[in-house]
Amino acid sequence: MVDLFIVLTASCIFLFLTALTDFQISDAEWEDMLEGFDERSYLSARRWKPGDDPYTLYAFNQRESERIPSDRALRDTRHYRCTTLHYDSELPSTSIIITFHNEARSTLLRTIKSVLNRTPVHLIYEIILVDDFSDDGELDCQLLTKLPKVKCFRNNKREGLIRSRVRGTDAARAKVLTFLDSHCEVNKDWLPPLLQRIKEDPSRVVSPVIDIINMDTFAYVAASADLRGGFDWSLHFKWEQLSPEQRARRTDPTQPIKTPIIAGGLFVIDRAWFNHLGKYDTAMDIWGGENFEISFRVWQCGGSLEILPCSRVGHVFRKKHPYVFPEGNANTYIKNTRRTAEVWMDDFRLFYYSARPAARGKSYGDIRSRVELRKKLNCKSFKWYLDNVYPELNHWCITSDKAQLGFLRSKTQLQQL
């Protein structure tokens, strides 16, 4: 309770100070900057050429993406009751952080313009782009900073999503942090529901319902509002339907959905709470597994995770990564998830190793600082997490062989991992 009081006090002080220094922009200036942006010139580079495979560069249909306007209209995919809700008139503004590496200009621009067009001006403190050493040099950043509220930082080497996001948060000045991927489109009134939940309780970490932008046609498709994040013992993320009992308890379709884990690409968090919790594990590489680490840490260290049905953001889901993992995709994912298992899963990490035997013996770096962080924050055990947050993950039934289960849980086996 003392730690939470400190976080709340720091949040209030930070909000006051940023309010003093925040610059105001009029609606007319906003429109002038949007209209003055040379979109044609920006989109002219690296365009798809007839005869080329439109999937080669970005693992989605570049040709279709370039056919779609940067400010296309979207159908409001929320439940109709969402339109009847009211939010506080004085919500905190947010720093919106978008990291990218060799992103298609059409999707990156559409992400930014959807934010600018569908978000109340006063709620956007700044849009921070972090270019993770893209091949295009600094040109993307230089051009995009001509849009309202946009700032850009470029890494001088490939850092990956986790360290790039931390760089963005270190530069952020708003009370609240909003993380978006670089191939998204926010929908109508997406931000106020998220900020309202954070204002009411800064220990919440909230995510929108993630609609689907088809990677082939770029059609915007509504996702079910009866989903939450889940996973198996190999730490493979999956969307899962709410159980009949859970759906029966949801008498109001606008109510937040508690989720054991977030997908990780799109979420909002109080800045002081994010820093208090230890930001991200910056020893993780490139991409993958960071959503498990931050989800376990939030729940076990006194926070909560929610999906808000009245906030909708579309996302391009691809079947493969268009970029290179220096150590290989599988090895990077194993390193990152093994760090998560070793720090946060206690003896239950044995189930991870049983489900992902390739992780045994693989290097995962020094975790002492993260273990100390867990002690410092006085976080709960993974058994508490299983009992109170995700009892559906039947941790006793990884194997029906009791002898094997006993072997897996032996101290000898722990020492051999």
Automatic annotation (TrEMBL):
The Enzyme Commission number assigned here is 2.4.1.41
| SUPFAM superfamilies reported in the protein's UniProt record | Nucleotide-diphospho-sugar transferases (SSF53448)
Tell me which residues make up the Glycosyltransferase 2-like domain.
95-277
Give the signal peptide as a residue range, or say none if absent: 1-28
Query: How does the protein's chain sit in the membrane according to the entry?
Result: Single-pass type II membrane protein
Question: What is the annotated localization of this protein?
Answer: Golgi apparatus membrane
Keywords in alphabetical order: Disulfide bond, Glycosyltransferase, Golgi apparatus, Lectin, Manganese, Membrane, Metal-binding, Signal, Signal-anchor, Transferase, Transmembrane, Transmembrane helix
Annotated pathway: Protein modification; protein glycosylation
Q: Which GO terms describe its cellular component?
A: Golgi membrane
Please tell me which top-level EC class this enzyme sits in. transferase
Which GO terms of type biological process are on file?
Answer: protein O-linked glycosylation
Cite the PANTHER family for this sequence.
Answer: N-ACETYLGALACTOSAMINYLTRANSFERASE, POLYPEPTIDE N-ACETYLGALACTOSAMINYLTRANSFERASE 14
What family is reported?
Belongs to the glycosyltransferase 2 family. GalNAc-T subfamily.
Identification of the protein by name: polypeptide N-acetylgalactosaminyltransferase
